[in-house]
Amino acid sequence: MSAIWFAKPDIEDMNRQMQGTACSNLGIEITEVGDDYVRGTMPADERTLQPVGLVHGGANVLLAETLGSMAANLVVDPSQQYCVGQEINANHIRGVRSGTLTGTARAVHCGRSSQVWEIRIENSDGKLSCISRLTMAVVAAQNHR
Questions:
Q1: Buried-exposed string 44-63: b where 16+ CB fall within 10 A, e elsewhere
Q2: CATH number, domain at 112?
Q3: What whole-number distance in Å separates Cα of residue 105 and Cα of residue 119?
Q4: Domain range spanning residue 124?
Q5: In what residue span(s) does the Thioesterase domain sit (predicted)?
Q6: pTM, entire model
């Protein structure tokens, strides 16, 4: 299988892009890029828990959108296009109180004007905690401000 990426991904650069953002504030880190997926982690700690002690659904969604958005932008030529989130949904399957969440974003569809990504988030035991679907709009670079 050949990689779906426009250019060879640089994990260090991807993590650098997240510095000083909501992503770094929640401890999100890109850990792996395969030929057709982006994987990253987020801790289940005081930054990501809601008051009853479970990982906040919004934190799951932030992890999912981060991974899917990073992946989507790796598919396009950045001098011509960029991708922005258009719609996201998430089903929270299993509550998590501690450990590390690992999310994996894989493309369902990469078209000329939109992309759809599935992001599976697992707990430290490898059990599904959340599944998300993210739709990205592909936008011409000259529209970028």
A1: beeebbeeeebbbeebbbbb
A2: 3.10.129.10
A3: 4
A4: 11-143
A5: 53-130
A6: 0.95
**E strands present in the chain:** 29-33, 37-43, 81-92, 100-110, 114-122, 128-140
* Burial class of residue 6 in the structure, from the number of CB atoms within 10 Å of its CB (0-12 exposed, 13-18 middle, 19+ buried): middle
Whether 46 is catalytic is no
**Which pLDDT score is estimated for 29?**
98
Q: Is residue 46 part of a domain?
A: yes
Q: What is the pLDDT of residue 142?
A: 82
Give me the helices (H) in 21-56, please: 22-25
Q: Is residue 3 part of a domain?
A: no
| Spans of the chain below 50 pLDDT | none
Write down the catalytic residue from 29, 32, 46, 65.
65
In a domain? residue 4: no
Which of 37, 29, 32 minimizes the C-alpha distance to 100?
A: 29
Q: Tokens for 113?
A: 């004007």
- In angstroms, the CA 76 to CA 58 distance is 27
CA–CA distance, 53 with 143 (Å, rounded to integer):
42
Residue 113, in any domain of the structure? yes
- Tokens linked to 108: 């369902």
